[in-house]
Amino acid sequence: MEIKSYLILVILLIYGLHTYFAYRLSRRRERKLKEEYEQLLESNLHFLTDISHEIRSSLTLIITPLEKVLDMKADDVMQASFDAMRQNSIRIINRLERLTDLKAAVDGTLRQPIEPVNASGSVIPDNRKRKEKKKRQESVLIVEDDMDILRYIESELNEEYHVYTALDGKDGLTKALQYLPDIIVSDIVMPEMDGLRLCKLIKKNINTCHIPVILLTAKTNMEQRIEGLEMGADSYITKPFNIKYLHTRIEKLIQSRETLRLKYTGKLDVVEDDIKVVTSNEKLLKRFNDKLKEHIENPDLNVDFISNELGISRVHLNRRLKEIIKDSPSNYIRNYRLKHAGWLLINKDMSIAETAYAVGFSSQAHFSVVFKKQYGMSPTEYMEMNRKTGE
Length: 391
What we know:
By secondary structure, this protein is of the alpha/beta class. The protein has helices at 2-71, 76-107, 147-157, 169-179, 195-204, 222-230, 243-265, 280-294, 303-310, 314-325, 329-347, 352-358, 364-375, 379-390, and strands at 139-143, 162-166, 183-187, 213-217, 235-238. The radius of gyration is 30 Å and the shape is flat.
């Protein structure tokens, strides 16, 4: 009887183990199939979004010229044909938006609504008088790897501005340093160096950080827009775009920079009430900068050193400076050294080592590391690029 009971127990145990392992194997197969399905779906969606990127770029060369033709007010028959073409182009854009929504849903994210919308996705003021304007003195650098779009934008802007062109971000950076344009219009997806990297380097370089940057892209996800703004972009325009909108953004950004320039050079007309009295903070910052300039070669130049020079306690000086510059005094001192180093590399016949020692770095290696972090390139690359552009 006991043998029979043990035998039944063994059979039940074997059955239980078999059932358990069969269940585990089934679950493993399900997980594997699910992973393969998700990979296939992601691959297909990635392919579709790449295709949509190409289609958006091509639509730019269809919708933008078409909107110009519509503004010309052709006869009723032609106007109806052009309008039908525009409406169908918009329909294609809406289909592409659904692809973006689908990918966002798969990724578990919600795409933020993209504003407005005429044929290009932007609200555009009337700018028909643009052709009546004389060619301006300002210059525009266009960075775009699609030759057709590059030539189209160039032809549109060439009537008003001096236009420079580049086919990728690396060439764009070289020409930005060479020509110092008043504004840069750049695509994002490009070989060699993309538009986000280009924008970051433009904004970090002391010679180009003042230049407004407009980024163009066929990708509509909000994450990339945010990333572009974090890199320092002044405006973000989605393809296909309205050429009048691009004209307006360029004009307004240049006007804004000119207003700031006039304000800080004292050439902007102001009423008496706008004239500010120099505050104690401004006086302190001037005294601090004077000491920086006087002792910049000193490797021991720091907040303690300057506080002794100014006869102010270190704690008090630290607190006051943080209120004024919104940054730590040590960062301010380092950036001041690097700014002067950049000027020396371009304007003085000095080696990297001599420049490093001239701005208070006791180690050339450390200077090179800190310089590259600030400017996005080594001191040698910075010097060669800027000296070439100056020749």
